[in-house]
Amino acid sequence: MRKLSMDELNRLSVDDFRQARKNPVVILLDDVRSAHNVGSAFRTADAFLAEKIYLCGITGTPPNREITKTALGADESVKWKYAADSVEAVKQVRAEGYKIVVIEQTSGSVPLQKLQLSPNSKYCFVFGNEVFGVKEEIVTMADTCVEIPQFGTKHSLNVSVSIGIVMWQCAMVLNLY
Predict the structure, then answer these.
(1) Top-level class of domain 14-173
(2) pLDDT at 61 over 80
């Protein structure tokens, strides 16, 4: 066994990525304060061919040195849009036909492994602030709330880790590969 070279990985160029058919998912970041987490969200969106990222509220936007450092160029390939008000952004995304899936621990949240997704639907996955999570008003707007089961002493995962886990599960459930 040996590591594959970059050429052997057969990754898309930025231009090819922009032209590629995207998966029916968008990521919405609600007041994510760390530019490193935002950059990581871009890389994950790139990896799973997400349509777009919505950067809302205090969430940083490109061009930003820390976002670019973590995104490793995915901030150039993935479409993004800034919205000052995350609640209004959720309303807009819903009006475009997306089901709203909030990643948050709530009284009615579904464990991630039990999330039911339809290949005929579009989904907006909402991830919240590193300390306060997703705004309560957005939680009440959700079609469903999902939580990632955990077994240790901490009550949550880093938002960038959560994005990766959720996008992987989404890809598996929808058979995107």
Answers:
(1) alpha beta
(2) yes
Residues whose CB is less than 8 angstroms from the CB of residue 26 and which lie 6 or more positions away in sequence, other chains included: 50, 51, 52, 53, 54, 93, 98, 122, 123, 124, 125
C-alpha to C-alpha distance for 21 and 17, rounded to whole angstroms: 8
Per-residue model confidence (pLDDT) at position 66: 96
Which pairing describes strands 144-147 and 110-111: parallel, antiparallel, or unpaired?
A: parallel
Residue entry with tokens 């819903």: 94
Please state the domain extents for the chain: 14-173
Whether 32 has a pLDDT exceeding 70, the answer reads yes
- Of the candidates 126, 162, 128, 124, which has an alpha carbon nearest to the alpha carbon of residue 33? 128
Q: Phi, psi (5° rounding) for residue 114?
A: -105, 5
Q: Which two tokens stand for residue 71?
A: 């995104």
Q: Is the pLDDT score of 115 beyond 90?
A: yes
Record the pTM: 0.95
Alpha-carbon separation of residue 115 from 53, 56, 110, 112, 118 (angstroms):
21, 25, 6, 5, 10
pLDDT above 90 covers a percentage of the chain that reads: 85
